[in-house]
Amino acid sequence: MIRHIAGLGRRGCELLEAMGRAGLFLAQSAVGVPSREGFYLWLRQMHFVGVLSLAIVMVSGLFIGMVLALQGYTILVDFGAEQALGQMVALSLLRELSPVVAALLFAGRAGSALTAEIGLMKATEQLSSMEMIGVDPLRRVVAPRLWAGFVALPLLTVGFSVVGIYGGYLVGVEWLGVFDGSYWGNMQSSVDFIGDVGNGMVKSLVFALVVTWIAVFQGYDLIPTSEGISRATTRTVVYSSLAVLGLDFVLTAVMFGGLS
Amino acid sequence: MSDSPFVVIDGLHFSRGDKDIFRGVSLNIPRGKITAIMGPSGTGKTTLLKLIGGQLTPDAGRVEIDGQRVHALSRKVLFRLRRRMGMLFQSGALFSDLSVFENVAFPLRVHTDLPEAMVRDLVLMKLEAVGLRGARELMPSELSGGMTRRVALARALALDPELILYDEPFVGQDPISMGVLVQLIKRVNEALGLTAVVVSHDIKETLSIADYVYVIADGQVMAHGTPATLDVDQDPRVSQFVHGEADGPVPFHYPAPDFRHDMLGAGGSR
Fold it and tell me: Is the dihedral of CA B249, B252, B256, B260 positive or negative?
């Protein structure tokens, strides 16, 4: 019994210590004077985590918008309210689905790759050798990736929403015959820029920070063996998915639940 | 000042988990000489280099490089100090996304504002010194183990460091590349007059180039002296190591229960 309590305490201490390390890690890598070289490194990472994630995010957005319209239509048509399809699709996407699903896809596509890449650099002593050359790997390797993720995910979320709404239009208007004036008109009158688009973007920024932070930290902090890399990559996906879903509830409660 | 040791290690304690790696190691690395640190595998020789380079922090004791206490420096000053050091990693640790040329150019590009033509000249000079000028366009994945280490040596020398740390430079090399590396380390040291620390357990090669040798075992300095004095050292542990005898004070067997008992008893358990 005592051993279990001691074990619990030890795990608690380890957790706190890891969180402290992660916090220091974030502070040391994200805060610094931008340089021209840093800009180029960032740009290259933007291509890697942003541009190369475009395809999966856009295709998913299109299908989710289409499914949303199809499901929404079958329910709304019972009440003769299919004219509200546009606002239903837009609000679901902007407030909820785009930030969350884009973040989950981003964690799977880019987050795991960041962890594996940094982890392999650590395992092959490339990070150590960089340190010994007098270059801080936190600034040179981690910072550009952190900032690229932080900027790329919100942009991908915007793309997700746009494509999703278009997917809803394809199914609702082109296929099921909802009047396109009411699809766009109801959407325009019911979507609030600050309340819906703005809050969705705030969510996306929070998710971007958390997912990228988890990904690069897991890569930097792993045990440099092949097993360590595979575990850390899995942890990145699991932790970031849980963090995104958990934070989504908290943020939704604060933004839309009347708790603020 | 120039007679004072370049690196001073005093009363160093370091442990990993429950295992003590160093229990009060003190040694001096003289300026402009090749100092070898030897010892059986697993005695923490690489750890010692990481402690000198400030990549690990000791539990107690101090490490001074040219009068500066490595572990009391701020992160920024430590990185500046590291520009005066070069380190040759056991794996070479070349940046796998950069060509041989770019690997050697990397320290020059990040730490200097030299024009491209001068960077090119310097890189080619370093590569010429290690005999790999013709391999500059290759990627690290296309190099053999010996070539990787030579490129890494060229990179470590790119900024003309005052101190160079070699981590097991001879491990896993065929006789020819081994000979090449031994000659390179010796020649580089003579030509540039830099201070070198060679961590190794390849006795013959290391003793042939070292000016002074420390033997480390069980977390302590077991013996030190010039290669000639170590060769005739009477301490059975030193003699076992220097002459490569399989059994002696350092046992051949990892601690285990009695062999007969193990074979006959406790059926089923491993």
Answer: negative
